[in-house]
Amino acid sequence: MNQKELIVQHHKRSVVAAILWPLLLVLVLWIVYWIEIKFRFNFTSFGVYPRQVKGLIGVLASPFIHSGIEHLYKNSIPLLVLTASLFYFYKDIAWKALLYGLLFSGLFTWLIGRSSYHIGASGMVYFLASFLFFKGVRSKNFRLIALSLIVVFLYGSLVWGTMPGKPGISWEGHLSGFLAGLVFSFILKSTHFSSLPVVQKPRPQNDKDDEFLKQFDEHGNFRPIDPEDEAVKYSQDSTADDEHQVTYRKNPNS
């Protein structure tokens, strides 16, 4: 299998993972909410309740519980986008990152949160945004650095959610997810893109063969080549070459 085929296969596998798993994860959130509405359950008591043993169940359960359709919708879109980015760019550590993010963002919330139930997937949204940003800026891969910039462009304003503000918003959960993402961006190592073969473009053997460098004179000044001049030069070169050619022909009378 050549380099191009390896890259195409790598891309296809990443795309499948980036579409399939994020959709399934978000679908689970909506199914849980549908069950809660359909059968008139209230799962809020399964959220994180800080510094109480009963509240530890929320470390695993709270991201799947939402207070309403608006709360669920606001978390679903960024969760879908960021999880898809995680599976495409960090496929080899995606599940490990999600598990650690779930556990430690929940545990941090349990330690520092107010005495109230903390629910929703926003802690995971903050974990993913933080993880993707800090992981990318520390990398030497242009794709991952570009991803970091996209995350900042789309979700840079999330940083304000890590501070006390609007009542009823778990800023402790947001801060916990952000800190967990920062920590695990240093701990988890990925070789998903570094394992790809590097396709080298053929280069001219010397500077004289470089079409771009031909447009600069010996002093470094830019002198665009006129296509007509280039055609005349080529014609002259061809003529000079023809003058030096010697044709040997066998004498038919010899």
What does the model show?
This protein is mainly alpha-helical and 254 residues long. It has a single domain, classed as Rhomboid-like (Rhomboid-like fold, Up-down Bundle). The chain is 57% helix and 0% strand. It is built from 8 helices and no strands. Helix 4 packs across helix 7. Residues 239-249 have low confidence and may be disordered.
Could you list some keywords that capture this structure?
elongated, Rhomboid-like fold, mainly alpha, 254 residues, single chain
In short:
Helix content is 57%, strand content 0%. It has helices at 3-38, 58-61, 69-89, 94-112, 122-138, 142-155, 171-187, 227-243.
Q: Count the beta strands.
A: 0
Task: State the CATH class.
Answer: Mainly Alpha
- The ordered string of helix (H) and strand (E) elements is HHHHHHHH
Helix content: 55-70%
Low-confidence segments, given as residue ranges, are 239-249
Give the second-level CATH assignment, the architecture. Answer: Up-down Bundle
Strand coverage percent: under 5%
Shape by Cα distribution = elongated
Output the CATH topology: Rhomboid-like fold
> How many domains in all?
1
Distance between the termini: 58 Å
Number of helices: 8
Task: Quote the average pLDDT.
Answer: 83
Name given to the CATH homologous superfamily: Rhomboid-like
